[in-house]
Structures are given as C-alpha cells and as structure tokens.
Specification:
Layout lengths: L6 E4 L9 H7 L4 E5 L9 H8 L3 H4 L2 H20 L2 E3 L15 E7 L7 H14 E11 L12 H4 L24 H10 L3 E8 L5 E2 L16 H4 L11 E6 L6
Parallel strand pairs: 1-2, 1-4, 2-3, 4-5
Antiparallel strand pairs: 5-8, 6-7, 6-8
Length: 251
C-alpha cells in the first residue's frame, strides 16, 4: 500500500507525456502535482491527438479513432490516480501546502519559463514545505556550458523556432531565464539548500555529477530513498539536473 502524501511535483503536465513507469510512480498516492492555472491534466491532449491523426484520412479512419479512444482512456485513468492542484505564486502568496510536510520535490523544465525572481520564489516555497532531510530535484536546460553543438532544439526553441533563433530566450511563451550549473546552484543555495550535481557541465565543458546509486552521504539518512535513487520519471535526462538537499534535524 502507498504511504501518505509526502512528495511534490511542481509543474506536472499531461500524464501521457510520461513513460508508463513514471505514470505509475506519480499515481501511487504519495504525490501532489502542481500545475499552473489555465493548464489542466489534459493540457497535451490536442498535441497528442494531432500526432495520432496526422492527416484528414487518418482522422476519420477506424484505426485512428481506436488509438484516440485508447489514449483518452489511459489519460482518464491516470487523472483518477494523480492529485492535480492548480497554483499561482507571487511575492505575497504561498503554496497552499503545510510547512515541512514533504520529503521530496521535483521540478522538471519549469524554472526556465519564469523570470529569475519568480523562479527564486518557487524555490523558496519548496524549501518551506520540505521537511528536514528533504530533497528538491531540479532539472532545466543546460543553457551556457554544453560543449559542441547547441542544446537540442526541443530544449528551448518552441513552435516555429530554430535552435539558432536569437529571440528564443526572450519569447514569454518559451523561456525567460537561462541557467547553468553556477547560477542554478546559487539560486538553490540562497534558499537554504546544499547542492548535489547529478548532471551538469562546468565552465571547462567537463561533465559533472552522477545520479545517486545507493543510500548515504551527501544525502541525509532519512532522505526519501525511493524517489532519490530512481530517475526514470525524468522526461529529459540529458538536462542540467541538481539536487537541493536539506540537512536532517539530527545533523
């Protein structure tokens, strides 16, 4: 049986955007999934259906109708298991969650869509709702330090843009802040976290970090190991990924 709610997912999207194993993990009864007002659990439905029926002929074919119906059934089943909670956050508001109530938080490709002060406010609030020993796993595009070719187009370009489009970073519908390991680490540290790099490039282009494979330092003994030691729920594992760790009360 799943335990009580103790995990927080900041910026959840359409359940069908995740692999089946991640959907099962996110729907195991231990999570609250935050999403922005105006976005719903079915936010990706139109895109999914367009992929399933890419031509007029397909749209009216029996096979395409069956695929659409199957996808919608799967999405509805996921919605029944996930706890979605819309939220809005500014300088005067707080997440509608109790302080110190969570052991693990995840934010994947969310902070880069906020201005820096907005991203910091989110990090502050996640810090507030995490208990001692909690871990905040943050994933964003590695904007500046990736060696070689620019980061993949899907990381930043948005619709009708290319990876070399100079306006891709200033488009409010795409990205508002670009992070590297230094700036994202500072953001987490200012909020009170100790930073553990899981995947990042330093200023020389060297790849840093690795996902934790066993319990133990630098994580507290009471860390949420079931969440910390797995990473199959990350949709973009080649991103910049850091853990913000809080000391346990006995440290």
């Amino acid at each position: 049986m799943p335990g009580p709610i103790h995990r927080l997912h900041v910026g959840a999207g359409d359940p069908l955007g995740y692999a089946p194993g991640a959907r099962a993990f996110f729907g195991d009864g231990t999570w609250i999934h935050l999403h922005a007002p105006g976005e719903t659990a079915s936010g990706g439905s139109a895109r999914t259906l367009r992929r399933l029926a890419s031509s007029a002929k397909q749209q009216f074919s029996r096979a395409a109708r069956d695929r659409r119906a199957s996808a919608e059934r799967e999405r509805e089943e996921a919605r029944m298991r996930w706890r979605f909670l819309p939220f809005w956050l500014d300088e005067r508001s707080h997440l509608p969650l109790r302080s110190g109530a969570f052991s693990f938080a995840l934010s994947e490709h969310v902070l880069e869509h906020l201005f820096l002060h907005e991203a910091y406010r989110v990090v502050q609030e996640v810090r507030r709702v995490l208990a001692p020993g909690g871990v905040f796993r943050v994933s964003v595009p590695d904007a500046d330090l990736r060696p070689g070719l620019p980061e993949p187009v899907a990381f930043h370009a948005g619709r009708l843009r290319t990876s070399m489009d100079a306006g891709r970073w200033s488009d409010p519908a795409v990205h508002k802040t670009r992070f590297n390991v230094y700036s994202l680490s500072l953001l987490l540290e200012l909020a009170g976290f100790t930073v553990v790099p899981l995947r990042a490039y330093d200023r020389t282009g060297k790849l840093l970090g690795r996902p934790p494979s066993q319990a133990g330092p630098p994580y507290p003994g009471n860390a949420d190991w079931d969440a910390v030691l797995r990473s199959d729920y990350l949709r973009r594992p080649d991103s910049l990924i850091l853990d913000g760790v809080l000391a346990s009360s006995g440290s």
